[in-house]
């Protein structure tokens, strides 16, 4: 017996009261069975979209062309989709949809057995394709013929790796063979969709496993040129320990070429924030500094999340001493941030410095305080500036 959240239960009951079939399906059911609290709810029904919109007070016609209406109850969104058959896929992604009265036909069109289960409070679990066994055995397996499923919708190739990664499941042998054979179809899929699946793989708690599957299947090289360069760098690291918000930029930083990092991430439609952080990490990786100087430099330059960046670098560089050193330096007050330097550009303007000379002196001050954080007071800084000018004249 699955204890359904009240809102999806209300949807099923209301549809049943009006003589329509309705079942909980998809990822939310899979999550319930795995003991995970679902974030989204999907219901399949023989009711047409217009019936659903008539029966519920608050609805959004989110995908009405494909039979999907979002029902909102107590601010909980429940996607209600009419049983459908998918035919004649265009560009290995977009199907022609035909509504049906058959739950079996609706489940048959789905990607993987673990996503092709249905549940009704009175009828119990409905499992036409042995999805429950695959859940118990931790296997991702296509419904029916893997070649047909991937040929219909090539994005399923990446979704296969994504589900295996997130759930820490193995991939069924025939399904994996289909992934390898048809991986080039991903070139027909939009960069935005590839980005969405790849991001979920890289952000997962089992991300290194996903990175390995991308390598072993050849899918990684299909979607990212020179993927092997990243894998060669990462496979022996403890990448899973990197904080999730740093994993995507850390992954791309391993190209060790900031121009290439930026070009590839732009091509895959990553946002500016991730691209900026990836290029920063790339540059820090390439700097040949002593560990103490690198820790001080990162803390000095990075106003936001310096600890996260240092932690990420320690894993990528396989240098556990970095975090220990960071903690020690912080406890000893030997770290200072650029924003806390006691002299600013405006102070140097008042001293008569301007233009290029002002910029040069400011950089000299920053380097001085970076190396000597205990000297971060106005008198010591001015003394250092005066010393610089004397040496320059000599």
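-> sequence recovered:
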């Amino acid at each position: 017996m699955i204890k359904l959240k009240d809102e999806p239960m209300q949807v099923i009951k209301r549809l049943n009261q009006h003589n329509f079939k309705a079942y909980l399906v998809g990822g939310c059911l899979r999550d319930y069975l795995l003991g995970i609290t679902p974030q989204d709810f999907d219901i399949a029904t023989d009711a047409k979209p217009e019936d659903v919109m008539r029966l519920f007070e608050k609805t959004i016609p989110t995908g009405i062309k494909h039979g999907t209406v979002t029902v909102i109850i107590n601010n909980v969104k429940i996607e209600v989709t009419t049983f459908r058959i998918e035919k004649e896929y265009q560009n290995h992604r977009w199907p022609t949809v035909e509504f049906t009265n058959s739950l079996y036909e609706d489940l048959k069109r789905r990607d993987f057995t673990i996503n092709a289960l249905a549940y009704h409070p009175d009828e119990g679990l409905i499992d036409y394709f042995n999805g429950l066994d695959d859940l118990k055995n931790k296997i991702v397996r296509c419904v029916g013929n893997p070649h047909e499923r991937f040929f219909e919708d090539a994005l399923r190739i990446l979704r296969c790796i994504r589900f295996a990664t997130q759930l820490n499941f193995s991939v069924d042998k025939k399904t994996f063979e289909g992934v390898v054979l048809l991986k080039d179809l991903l070139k027909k899929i939009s960069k935005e969709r590839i980005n969405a699946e790849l991001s979920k793989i890289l952000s997962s708690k089992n991300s290194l496993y996903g990175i390995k599957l991308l390598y072993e299947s050849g899918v990684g090289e299909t979607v990212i040129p020179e993927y092997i360069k990243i894998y060669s760098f990462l496979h022996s690291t403890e990448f899973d320990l990197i904080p999730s918000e740093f994993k995507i930029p850390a992954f791309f930083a391993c190209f060790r070429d900031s121009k290439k990092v930026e070009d590839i991430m732009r091509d895959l439609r990553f946002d500016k924030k991730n691209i900026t952080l990836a290029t920063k990490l790339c540059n820090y990786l390439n700097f040949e500094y002593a560990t103490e100087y690198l820790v001080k430099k990162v803390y000095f330059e990075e106003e936001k999340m310096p600890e996260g960046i240092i932690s990420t670098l320690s894993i990528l560089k396989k240098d556990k001493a970095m975090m220990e050193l960071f903690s020690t330096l912080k406890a000893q007050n030997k770290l200072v941030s650029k924003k806390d330097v006691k002299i600013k550009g405006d102070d140097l303007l008042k001293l008569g410095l301007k233009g290029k000379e002002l910029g040069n002196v400011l950089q000299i001050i920053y380097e001085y305080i970076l190396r000597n954080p205990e000297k971060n007071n106005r008198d010591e800084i001015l003394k250092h500036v005066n010393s610089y000018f004397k040496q320059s004249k000599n």
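The first strand starts at residue 22 and ends at 25.
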